[in-house]
Design a protein that fits this description.
Layout lengths: L1 E7 L1 H5 L3 H10 L3 E8 L3 H7 L9 H8 L4 E8 L2 H9 L12 H5 L8 E3 L3 H11 L1
Helix pairs in contact: 3-4
The structure holds adenosine-3',5'-cyclic-monophosphate (CMP).
Length: 131
């Protein structure tokens, strides 16, 4: 069994999509083993997204993640990291395939509704960051 971190971002929390998104994970055999709603500040967002610090969109990304409440979860299942990434869809909702969370709910590349860990190493770090 593998664990991964999922974040429902401010745009989706604000639109009341938490339960709908949680149900998508559950239907796809990802068990929610830990969860909480919180509002992080910009420094915390900067620490969380440190891996992107050299990217031109870093500042905007940190401002956005700290702009409102988020809902974080630890998802557990077979190949949870990869499965979660399939369920989320492409980073840019415009490129996401039908039925994925980002296709269903994403607004833009920034407001793409969910984040998911991209590797075993990052999943461990990200889970530790929030729980
Ligand atoms: P996420 O999976 O949370 O990881 C980093 C985030 O940066 C990504 O989702 C996007 O929301 C955001 N982002 C903004 N601009 C870009 C970009 N040009 N390329 C990739 N990610 C971007």
């Amino acid at each position: 069994m593998e664990q991964t971190l999922s974040i429902i971002k401010p745009d989706a929390v604000e639109r009341g999509l938490v339960e709908e998104i949680k149900n998508i994970f559950i239907k796809n055999n990802l068990k929610i083993v830990n969860e909480k709603k919180l509002h992080i500040n910009k420094d915390e967002a900067a620490e969380f997204y440190k891996v992107h610090q050299s990217k031109p969109f870093y500042e905007q990304l940190c401002n956005y993640l700290s702009s409102g409440p988020i809902f974080v979860m630890v998802l557990e299942g077979e190949n949870a990291i990869l499965e979660n990434r399939k369920i989320m869809g492409a980073t840019n909702p415009k490129d996401a395939i039908e039925g994925t969370i980002r296709k269903l709910y994403g607004i833009s590349i920034d407001k793409n509704s969910v984040h998911g860990s991209d590797s075993v190493e990052n999943a461990k770090k990200e889970i530790k960051f929030f729980f």
